[in-house]
Design goal:
Helix content is 77%, strand content 0%. The protein has helices at residues 3-20, 24-34, 46-53, 57-60, 67-91, 100-113, 115-123, 130-157, 165-183, 188-223.
């Protein structure tokens, strides 16, 4: 065989081997390369994703039932990644430190460095199929549950009270994700403004919940 043809044949065999060994994560990564502030997962076609991944469309079905299942996997991965990062940031804050600013800073820094993945989580809840929206709502509830536990822990460590911590956690989570969605396409200066607003509004929610708890305690004492 001619040397050049042998090299081409070897390259073709290697490419075939790579495609045969493609993983579920390879398809997810291919989809992430296609999405962004101006492109939603809901607008992707199976043909686009498989072309980006370098596989035949039929190979897609070895890993995902359909595009909805791929989108849900992306949403779940984005939620898990962000929860881990914010959880680590909150755990590094002691009971004597202010937790809101560090948590918001971590969120905005992650948004700037990994906008494609977070865009899936921040924006897919308003577009796409019901399964997309349910997946985003599920991730939001995970955030709310973890934040509720942290709010209870921190207020207890500081000798404070907080009324309806689950509702406060829900208000904070929905606020952060709504503002985060608007920050996806913002420039650095605008993101800083959004971050400052986010911190102020979160503090308003927490201080309001603390004030309500104090008022309820006073009412209870007066009634007793």
């Amino acid at each position: 065989m001619h040397p050049a043809r042998a090299v081409q044949s070897s390259d073709a065999q290697a490419a075939t081997t790579r495609k045969a060994l493609i993983t579920r994560q390879d398809i997810i990564d291919a989809a992430l390369r296609l999405v962004g502030p101006h492109r939603s997962v809901s607008t992707l076609s199976l043909r686009e994703v498989t072309r980006e991944a370098g596989i035949a469309p039929n190979s897609f079905y070895r890993h995902f039932r359909d595009m909805d299942e791929l989108a849900v996997a992306l949403i779940d991965m984005a939620g898990q990644s962000l929860r881990r990062i914010i959880r680590e940031a909150r755990l590094q804050v002691s009971a004597t430190q202010e937790v809101t600013r560090p948590s918001v800073t971590v969120f905005m820094d992650q948004l700037a460095s990994d906008a494609r993945l977070l865009h899936v989580l921040l924006c897919e809840g308003t577009v796409g199929s019901d399964s997309y929206k349910q997946a985003v709502d599920r991730e939001l509830r995970y955030f709310e549950d973890e934040l509720r536990d942290d709010l209870v822990r921190l207020t207890r460590e500081r000798g404070q009270q907080l009324t309806q911590p689950a509702l406060a956690a829900k208000a904070i989570t929905r606020l952060v994700f709504a503002l985060g969605g608007s920050a996806v396409e913002a420039g650095p200066e605008q993101r800083e403004v959004i971050a400052d607003q986010m911190v102020t509004m979160i503090r308003m929610i927490i201080f309001g919940a603390q004030a309500m708890a104090a008022a309820e305690a006073e009412e209870s004492v007066a009634a007793g």
